[in-house]
Every structure is written in structure tokens, then in C-alpha cells.
Design goal:
Chain lengths: 298, 352
Amino acid sequence: MNEPVTVFALALLAATIRKSVPLIFASTGGFFSERSGVVNIGLEGMMLFGAFSGALVAVLSHNPWLGLLGAAIVGALIACVHALATITFRANQIISGVAINLLAVGGTVFLTQVFMGGERSFSLGPSDRLPMWGPFLPIAYLSFICVAGACVFAYYTVPGLRLRAVGEHPRAADTQGINVAKVRFLAVIMSGVLAGLGGAYLPYFSGSFAKNMTSGLGFIALAALIFGKWNPAGAMAASLLFGFADALQETLQGRGGLPPQIFQAIPYVLTVVALAGVIGRSRPPAALGRHYEREASG
Amino acid sequence: MNTGLKKNSANLLPSLAALILAGIVSSIVILILGESPIYIARVMLSGSAGSLSSIANTLEEATPLIFTGLCVAIAMRCGLFNIGGEGQLVIGAFVAAWVGYRVGGLPPVVHITLCIALAGLAGALWALIPGLLKARFGAHEVINTIMLNYVAFIFANYLVGLPYFKKPGQIPQTEDVLQSALLPRMTFLYEYTRLNLGFVLAIAAVLLIYILLEKTELGFEIRSVGHNPLASRASGISVARNMLLAMAISGFLAGMAGSERVLGVHRHFISPFPFGYGFAGIAVALLGRNRPLGVLVSAIFFGALASGGAQVDIETNVPRELVTVIQAIVVLFVACEYPIRKFVFIRRRTAL
């Protein structure tokens, strides 16, 4: 490494942020869903749908901003499937998440074929991509705004309090006149919007959509949410940490004497450790994963 | 007897209804692609059951799904959600390849048994990590098994890159396993089949797990913990012990799936290892309602979808990913059985 230390550090910082943006979006999305009591392992699939639809709309309309909107809308629609299955039809939340991930892997390739004819990937032209605002894409800044917004919403507003109440003690919330199903529905849709935006970042960054391009980022975002103790600021910090590990691995390219796999494994291992309570127990919302059924009047 | 039959049909109905709904939705998807669903169904049928070779393909695709379906099912019967089949399979596959090429001079029966047993043990150990974390700290097994999937991929990728394991060359893969470790292929069905003795082992596993769950005390305890851990503890059943055993057996089955892929099909370990059998196992177990025989039937169904899908990919404009979409739709509909069940029950009540 011959570069001056400051240049190296700045490059690493920028790379860290670039790697973290999709994680920040998706983990903030996960925050909404999980704090309302709905497990969302479908984040991965929602991101993949976001990546696909963001890229597709941008290519078809030559307007990347419209692509962003498309990614958010498609993310919301897929989240609606999860919400409908788990809240209305009381499907197991984990199974529904698994189904959404399967649907995304198959469905995005399928739809690529429909729109692009016989291809499994497609590229964005120069006019289809977002401009750079300084060192980053515009949505990088948006991701941090979303985190701040989520913090303010969840901890300083009445609807935010309702969201957390529904995830901790739905029965008590119900007695207070809160519509548990409605709050959960909206929270899951919000998670889809944010995961969709996080996914859309990927093709705008790399310049193309490829089959299964999220390759586990949704699960890393889930890990960040858990490692960040189920709050937006913590999840952002964890996303930055995981992004840093990834950036470091890429920058070093094996020059650091350590195998790159150690850096790749960091998010997953840390999450397992955090769940076991070795370094500060990470505690899920009390009603996470449980269906809520109003007591029958008869 | 009659009530037993009724109970079974009540169990079967939601699965069948889900399949029919999935068929309708898939047909709409195919129509959107501008193909005829009937034509696609015909191609699928001929690709999965139209000839001896396509039947062999179906059973070959079904083999790992039987193992991973059982893997998910037995954990589920104990109340545990093992989404880690994918990772346990990879670890098992790696060990099978390693023992398969490194240990020489054994007669085939011994060598194959050794490979499969060690692959199963490796998978069991990998599954015991989330099992222990659950039993000891109450850490949720769903998150931990997901995380350990990725740790397994990364770990195996690291190992196969080491000079000790890596076959010289650019590709991160091991040497091919020795002749004595190869699961014999059923070439009497058709010359190029990859269907192998592993299928017979999978059937044996179905029977063993059935006997274990339904006819032994251990099986009773596992099911009891799955039904109601608190009541089980109150009646003197060790919840932790049964959870650990169920996870170990579950991981063992996933490891066996990995060994079947290596010893019967690929003949070496390669990174990244073919992906998806673990997750498909969830669909298989779900459709088979976590019963060993149900798993067998639904694994063959999904195996037929896979081999039929390959045919569709070759012959039509519809990509093979149609199969994954159908899988997802089936899972979604089976998971939404509540309204279906409600509908069935209401009808039955009014009929009385």
C-alpha cells in the first residue's frame, strides 16, 4: 500500500457508505415490519424485486427517478402479499417470507424474459442512471434521511408509539382502540417501500440488473436490524459496520494477510453472537411472529 | 377408523386446494408470457413422466428434496424451524467430497458408508450450533440458521480454496471422489441417468424417520415437545434434550443430501455449491404436512416440476424459473390454509 494514509482512509470511508446504503434502507424497512410484530425474512425478495423494477422502469422510461418510484411501488405491492398472507390469512410469517424470496428469485428472471426477451440480465444506458451528487448517488443521502425520519417517527410521534405498542402487546393496544391489523399492514408496506428502494440502489450503482443480484443482502440487512437491537439508529450503525467489513475486504483484496472470507463472515457471526447475548443481549419485540386474534365475543 | 380417514382427508384438502389454486395462478402467469398453459403442462408432463428417462430425471431431482424435506419436517415436528438445511447440506457435501477422494483403499460399501456417515455427522454438528443456542440461550433458531447458512457457504468457500483441498487450477473445487466412493447410478433405466443409489437411501430415510416419529418413545417425546413444550416439561420430558436431538437428526439428513449430490451426481465439491435444495425442502415439508410419507410424495411432485421445467426451458419461451415461481405460489397458498380450513369446516358443520 503506497497511497498516503489519508487518501486511503477517505476512499475506504466512501466505499463503506456505498456498500452500506442498501443495507440501511432495508434494515430500516425491517424495523417497521418487525417492530409491529411481523417477521420479515422476505426483505431479500423485496429488495430483489426493487432492484429489478427500478432498473426496468429506468430502462423503459429513460428516467431513473421514475425507476425509483417504480421500485418503491413494486416493493410495496410485494409487501402487500406478505401482509395479506400473514395478517389477513394468518399464514406463518417465516413461511410467507420464504415464499416471497422464492417468488423474487424466479419472478424477476421470468419478468426479465417477458420485457427483455430471452435475457437473464440487462444493462442501464447512461441516461437511465442517476447522476452522482458529489461522491454518492442521490439515494445514498436519502437513506440517512429515512433513518432520521424513522427515529423521529417511532420515538416522538403518536403513530410511532402505536407501532411499537402493537409489536409489544397487541391486546393492550387493541383495548386502547388501536386497529392492530391496520397498523401492521401499513408497517409491512413501509418495509416493502424501503427494501424496494434499497434494492434499486444496486442496479443504479452497478449499471445493470443481474439474476439474483441481491445475493443475501436482505439477510445481512436483517442481521443489521438484529445486531442494532431493533432500532433504526442501531440498525444504521450495524449496516455501516457491515458495509465497512465489505469495503475493507474489497480494498485489501487479500493484501492484509487475512483471508477475505473472514470479512465476509463478520455480519453473520456477529449477529449469532449478539442473539446469544454474549455482547449485550439483543431482544426482539415481545409479540414478534405472533398472530393477533381479537377475542371472540361469543 | 372412519374418523382417522376423515382426519386425513381434512389434512389433505388444504394441500390439494392450494395446488389447484397454484395451478390457476401459474396458468395466468403463463398466459401473460403469451404461451398456452395447456401446452406448457403437456411439455412438463412429458418432461417429467413421459418416458423412462424423464421418470429417472424426476426421481433424481426428488432425491435431495426427500432428504431436505425430512430435515425441515423432523425439526418442525419438534417445534423448531430449521431454515439452515442449505448450510448443513453444503458442509455435508464438502465432507463427503473430502473423505471421498482422500481416504483410499476401502471396499465401496465401507467407503460410501463412511462418506455418508461423516457428511451426516458434519451436517448434524452444524445444526447443533443453532440447536444449542436455542436450548441454552433461547436464541431464535430461524435467525441463527439463516446466518449459519451464509457462514457455511463462506467457510466451505474458504476451505476449498486452501492448497490442501483445492484441485490445481482456476476453479475452486476438490479432486473427484475415488471410484470406490461413487454411489452407483441406475444406468439400467437409461444410460445417462444421474439417478443413483441415493434415491434408495432416501426412501429408507423416509421409512426410518416414520418409524422413529410414530413408533418410538423418542419420536413421541419429540412430537410432544413440538405440541406443547410446557406440558412436556411438566410431565418429565427434557425439552432441551429433544430439541438438540431433533436438530441433530435434521442436520444429519441435510448432510446426507449433500453427500448424495457429491457421491452420486457432481463427484466433487465446488464452490459455490448448487443452491436451493435446502429452501425447496421447506416447500416440500410444508406441502407434505411434515409427515415422512407426505414428504416423499411432495418431493417427487417438486422433482417432477423441476425435470418438467427443464424440458419447458429447452422447448418453449418459458424459462425454467417458472418452476421456482410455481414453488413460491404453492408455498404461499399452503401457508394460507386458514381460510381454506375454515371454509371446509363451515361446510362440514352446515352439512351435519
